[in-house]
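WP5 quarterly update. Target: 3-dehydroquinate synthase. Source organism: Tenacibaculum holothuriorum. Length: 352 aa.
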Amino acid sequence: MTTIQAATYPIHFEEKGYNELSNLIANNNYSSLFVLVDTNTLEHCYPRFIQLLGTEKPIEVIQIEAGEIHKNIETCVGVWNVMTELGADRKSLLITLGGGVITDLGGFVASTFKRGIDFVNIPTTLLSMVDASVGGKTGVDLGVLKNQVGVFANPELIVIDPEYLHTVTPREIRSGSAEIIKYGMTHDIRLFNEIKDNPNVNIVDLIHRSIEIKNEVVLEDPKEKGVRKVLNWGHTIGHAVESYFLESEHKEALTHGEAIAIGMICEAYISHKELGFSKEKVNDIKKNLQQIFGIASITENDYAPILEYLIHDKKNVGGIINFVLLNDYEDFKLNCTTSQGIIIESLKFYCQ
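Structure tokens (predicted):
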């Protein structure tokens, strides 16, 4: 797979990525190297990483607990303290080796430690390969409110190594495929068709195109003032549902992709009501996404708390809930609004 050039950094694939990372380390005379991992990636991914990384420099490994629940400022404080104790300075390099929690949190830790040190992302899940690691967004959650604290900061480079996908569960692969479906609906319907028409599709074949789409959007709008908002398709309701299920004692937590699939179904319904998006396509989206991701239990008792989480969405301005909606596949409209009544209708539609 060919290298993709982002605004200030390259996105390399497979073994070329490790060669370029080794060159980066050799050419920049870093004072110290740190690798941020979680309990899963230390066991399953670090051995491959250290085998392919060509450097004689000593590496300090910093481990955090796995899971979205640990993507918070308290974990950052722990990592900052460990780096300080190990003598990190402004010429240190932090390499993140993990999924979206690691790349989001690690990028934030690096971009704020001593007002910013270099970092490199090596995503190990499908979700982080096609979305979280690319685009310069870093940050952590505030309680269960997702990505409320963070900064835009670009890595020095990104290494995409699909071999790491052998270390994650089929559920996590499905979760990442939701972001690929998002790119399909908004930019290249072939991606959605490939997934829905072929249950045995080789997902690796769709990674490069997905990253291309995200990179093209980010190049046009680095800080989400305009067209980058399209990357939030499915995420307005999806994030609210994800946060609610994470917080509720009576719900089993959803993966990010499972929640975004719910969001895409609901927001497709809202697109039909507000923009005339084809009802046939809305029904097709619902049928296919529920086949892929299953059906979460959402009842009338859940509507009010989900609406409450929607109010806290970081994309809102002046208390107004903003949506990305579809006129048609590959034809979207930004900064849309709707009524609470239609939002509730969309949740009912999901459950029918």
